[in-house]
Specification:
Elements: E1 7-10, E2 14-19, E3 32-37, H1 39-49, E4 54-61, H2 64-76, E5 78-86, E6 93-96, E7 106-109, H3 126-131, E8 134-138, H4 147-158, E9 164-167, H5 189-204, E10 209-213, H6 214-221, H7 226-235, E11 240-244, E12 250-254, E13 259-262, H8 275-289, H9 293-308, H10 320-328
Parallel strand pairs: 1-4, 1-8, 2-6, 4-5, 8-9, 9-10, 10-11
Antiparallel strand pairs: 2-3, 6-7, 11-12, 12-13
């Protein structure tokens, strides 16, 4: 077997088609940029940009966008070995609108079914998953079969062999809810959360780290107070709970009693999408380096802030030198 990966992520992949104008609704946008996208994919890219050996488990359509994804992954230094095509399904695309500083609606085109939800348990390289220094899964991977069964099978095979991160990643529209990328999901939000919660709880039993914002933590815990959410996540099985609080910063609570609560890193926001994935890649970088909670959260905050100050997601992920320089200026 080859040297274990620093990070293997499993979940959503696609193409982001983002406006090159800000403050303009999609109906009036004239030019767009094409970028590699998908939360789990962006986390792998973020870690690779920080010097970590990473790979993605996902699937695309057998189409030109799928070809683009493979090329983009290789360009970023992310292994595409486990990114395979699905006949008859298109590679997903995602559009957004950009209204800084805090309004970035997402429009997902993932029908009739996204290929990244057609991951089968028997296709998984369980030895590689067990050997990886960090394994990262997302809530979206639990929303439909066969991806749900594959995600839970991967977690079971992993057996907490090392840091196993559950990105709570709440997208209500993938669970029959309404609304945007996070939030209460509109009129059907409560029902969507209720449908998702048993699967979130099942995944948490196999995870060592949970990371998400308050909306996402509510799906797993039914609570909204950040400290109560963190405690509930610990009680559900993880060792470290990380609650992102937007303009209020980030809270990290470890089972051993250590805590860190940091304010956000001030930055002029261009596009907040992707900042959380940059945070996630930097979190993995810190876990691999064995950092304590406070420096790890400060570094992850900085990595997220850098991406928030840029237009794109994957191609905006900072290098270690960029994060170090950013922190040195503050």
């Amino acid at each position: 077997m080859t040297e274990p990966y620093d990070l293997i992520t499993m979940g959503r992949i696609g193409v982001d088609i983002y406006p090159l104008q800000t403050g303009v609704p999609l109906a009036r946008v004239e030019t767009f940029g094409k970028f590699l996208g998908g939360s789990a994919t962006n986390v792998a890219v973020a870690a690779a940009r920080l010097g970590r050996r990473s790979a993605v488990i996902s699937r695309t359509g057998r189409d030109p966008f799928g070809d683009y994804i493979h090329q983009a992954l290789r360009d970023f230094g992310v292994d595409d070995l486990w990114v395979t095509p699905v006949d008859g399904l298109p590679t997903p695309v995602t559009f957004c609108e950009i209204f800084p500083p805090d309004d970035f609606p997402l429009y997902f085109y993932r029908r009739p079914k996204a290929p990244d939800l057609v991951i089968h348990p028997e296709e998984l390289d369980l030895d590689a998953l067990a050997a990886a220094r960090i394994f990262w899964i997302t809530g979206t991977g639990l929303c439909e079969e066969p991806s749900r069964g594959a995600t839970l099978a991967a977690l079971k095979a992993r057996g907490k062999a090392g840091p196993t991160v559950f990105d709570l990643d709440w997208r209500p529209m993938f669970w029959g809810g309404e609304g945007g990328a996070s939030g209460d999901g509109g009129a059907t939000g409560a029902a969507a959360m209720a449908a998702a919660r048993p699967y979130y709880e099942a995944a948490l039993r196999h995870a060592t780290v949970a990371v998400g914002n308050v909306d996402e933590a509510e799906v797993a815990t039914g609570l909204r107070d950040p400290k109560a959410c963190a405690q509930a996540l610990l009680e559900l099985g993880v060792e470290l709970a990380v609650i992102k609080q937007g303009p209020k910063g980030v809270l990290a609570v470890h089972r051993d009693g250590r805590t860190a609560e940091l304010p956000p890193t001030p930055v002029e926001v261009v596009n907040g999408l992707g900042a959380g994935d940059s945070f996630g890649g930097a979190l993995c970088h810190g876990l691999l380096a064995g950092w304590d909670l406070e420096p790890m959260m400060r570094y992850a905050n900085a990595a997220g802030a850098i991406v928030a100050s840029r237009l794109a997601c994957s191609s905006a992920m900072p290098t270690a030198d960029e994060v170090d320089a950013f922190l040195a200026e503050r």
